[in-house]
Input
Amino acid sequence: MTRSRSLALLSAAACGVALPKRARAEDASPDAIFARAKDAWRSRAEAPFVTFDLRERYDWRGAIHDNWWHASYRDTDRALALARLVVPSDEAQRLRGSPIALDFHWHHGTGRADSLDTNKDADAFPVLDPLIEPNASFGLRARDPKPELAGASTLAPAPPSPVPQALTGTAGDASLRELARVEAVARDYTIASAGIERVRGADSYHLTLTPLRAPKINRLRDLWVDARTFATLRLAVAGLFDGKPYEDARWLVTYVDFGGRPYVQQIRTDETLRFGLDRFVAGLAYDFVGYGFPATLPPLTFERLL
Output
């Protein structure tokens, strides 16, 4: 503690001013903290529309690769529309070259041949829309049954699912899926306290979670909760999307606060992911930036026209 801060605290105490209370790990049980974190998600009033830009970044062959999307989200039916932002000259550079096909099937789900690309600037894997809701809690809150989340809603929406359930998808699909629609409850995990940590300048409870069943669905492993508001500041999950190599890595999710509501700021893994035969990707991260909260968006934004 600095001398000036010490003097300020002593002065405040002498004047009878209440000093800020620092959180202590023993203030509440891990299960109680977990329950309060879930309540914070349940009680939030969602913005009806959200817009943001999404960047996918990773390191492959010693070079940084970026892909960008502009996203629009409608909370009433959880419709998410992604429009990839393409610089024509960069896209032409990425797509040039002649891949040499090899008959190896390393991919989860539907098989396909791997290839050795003669273009060193090509992407390590197909550019797939990362369909992640900006207000995703990764299982901390139950969501009302609504039409299946898709890159954009169709003109004839799919009927709502009878109960929240895990979404499926593979690395070779035309789209990626959110990790789960299942609400995390205390009986799904053994919850322990890892103490108090400072996250974004705030005291936070750090909880560790060990799944008691279905680890591929109950993927939460760490949770950092604001000790004052019980808002989620950060969490870690074992696996992001269904399908290799996404499901085998540990991912760290950080949130940014807008009007008392946490929204995803970044999802990243520091592990090296293997795509196919010889495509090793390091530091894959999804950054959510440029958030906006318009009063409305045209319905056509969320329609896929055939």
Observations:
- The longest strand covers residues 279-292.
- Helices lie at 3-14, 30-43, 88-95.
